[in-house]
Design goal:
Elements lengths: L18 H15 L5 H19 L7 E3 L2 E8 L2 E2 L3 E2 L2 E8 L5
Helix pairs in contact: 1-2
Amino acid sequence: MATKTKSQISMDDRIVANPALLDLLEQRETAKEALAETKEVRKAFKVKDDACKAAIKAIEEIPPYRIGRFVITKKDRAARTVEFEIEASVVVKISNADAKE
């Protein structure tokens, strides 16, 4: 019998149970898969992506952690100046734990 393996973040994966955010992440993934070159599709993906990242930034759990099949990591980004000013922020990365990288 074939088994399906899942990516593991660490020896003791922390799982965040948040059905509303999991649903939002699944919607985001669907929009990402359907991403095309049209402005409307990209705009729809950005709306879902921004909503997911805002909800994730509100979670107090120490990253990395999983929400369903998604692995969430965060990285602080310090303020800096390139040719324009970049404000300090938190970079949120959402990846599919089931996808092969």
